[in-house]
Amino acid sequence: MLRPLDTATRERKSLDGLWRFRVDVDGVGRDERWFACPLPAAREMAVPASYNDILTDPRLRSHCGEVWYQRTVRVPRGWAGQRVVLYLESATHHATVWVGDAEVVSHSGGYTPFEADITAHVRAGDEVRVTVCVDNTLTFQTIPPGVVEETPTGRRQRYFHDFFNYAGLHRTVWLASTPIARIDDVTITTDLQGTTGTVDYRVDTVDADGLDVHVVLRDAERLEVGRGGGAAGVVSVPDVHRWAPGDGYLYDLEVQLVDAASALVDSYHQSVGVRTIDVRGTEFLINGEPFYFTGFGMHEDHPTLGKGHNDAFMLQDFELLDWIGANSFRTSHYPYSEDVLDHADRRGIVVIDETAAVGLNMGLGGGIFGGQGYLTYSQETINDETRAAHAQAIRELVARDKNHPCVVLWSIANEPESHGQEAEDYFRPLFEVVREADPTRPAGFVNVGLSPHGKCRVSQFADVLMINRYYGWYTQTGDLDGAEQALEEELRSWASDGKPIIITEYGADTLAGLHAVDPQPWTEEYQVAYLEMYHRVFDRIDAVVGEQVWNFADFATTSGIVRVGGNKKGVFTRERNPKSAAFALRRRWRALA
Ligand code: BDP
Description:
alpha+beta, Immunoglobulin-like, TIM Barrel, six-stranded antiparallel β-sheet, 32% strand, globular, binds beta-D-glucopyranuronic acid
């Protein structure tokens, strides 16, 4: 599956804007066939956006179940004879789509795209009704997991991750055309031999009997630098301009499907960054050179929009990454918008790409320690069906993001319970899934403090150790000396594994504007002192090859006694104003760079 593009043979039309919308409070929409008529009693809703914060009725904000979106769209007159596709960049968490009265696709997994071939249901030039029913329910068999509990006051969605369960159509919905005989997928891998780069490509096609594949590689000035023929091959680029951190240089690979008379049947453009990734001992190498990650775990999270993608907010976040001297981020805790990955490619920002497998740990909930009243792995909780959904989430992430040069490492889960035989049995096959899906990039998962070195049974499968630690916050609260000792001791034991270590989370909740001479937890001074303490320890341990602070900005969470209007571990506020820590990090990271 390829993301829709405008090319010489393809067109796309965005369905962003206001849709008709209705929260299905009583769960009757399917029985009443709301897709088969103009959505009854509808209000309007913005796409892309989470619907939650736009609505003012608290019951709708925290509604658990289905909501309906509907609009009409005219299929362009010129699309006659073409294949017509509806492509949803995401629908959080499950969706069923109808075109007219016909159900055309359903999908689970709230942060990866899916499409439906709707050619049989539309006519070029005609208007058609598109209805999307989106369900935000999380169960132990979904990624991320949750559980709907029956309470005396009704159904209540519980989940174990520390961010608000925003839902809806968070990203663009496209109506797109492709030729019938077409390019179906493109896979790129790159290598370097001295100053020569190689671009290895593989093209999958559909209905393309008797057609040939040609590829043309052009540089950023659109000048041709190489060509190839056949469904798979290698294009060499002498004096290659490498893609590197801070230098997001991209080539364009045009893939063409041509007939015997050399007429163009289909054309698709794939951007290409030529770079290599290797793990050597405790080093993480990009283009053969040791790379040290600086940056953040982030969230797609903004007032009003929730998890809705917005270009202006995206650009502001990247500008702030640049301002502070960060060279990387992790897509904690789900795949981000495709626009974010494209932008990271162009800016040379390095990305750790994570699935939505967060909260597979009943020793934690909403970011705090404490049993959740369930076993993590059991017949009734995280089980084989969950693992199948998890495997699918990994495959969909890799399928979507495999060609991004910015992506250097896969994270297949955040803070799962990773001690015990069940954890080992659960994760072993998932590491096989990620390695089969992408044999070229390192893979790992993010380890939690409850499964420390010596106890963790999953880190054996990882190429890189990604570790979240909160000494000085959740433990040794306010005692930075004690925290420093404990942190160093634990990191030294991880270092004995001989793998690179990235600290993927460390942070302290900080209320912007709260100050004290004696740095106490929650003050801006404490956040600075806490981070500085961590940095002293990182600088003493060679195996530490990266630091990503939790979090880039304050973000919305479910309500809880440790959350004051959300999680406040941001180095920026939710409105993206800097706390004192931002200036301290800026000094360190700019000096490191
Ligand atoms: C970690 C989680 C992250 C939380 C963070 C916190 O990975 O999602 O937001 O802790 O508690 O456990 O702030």
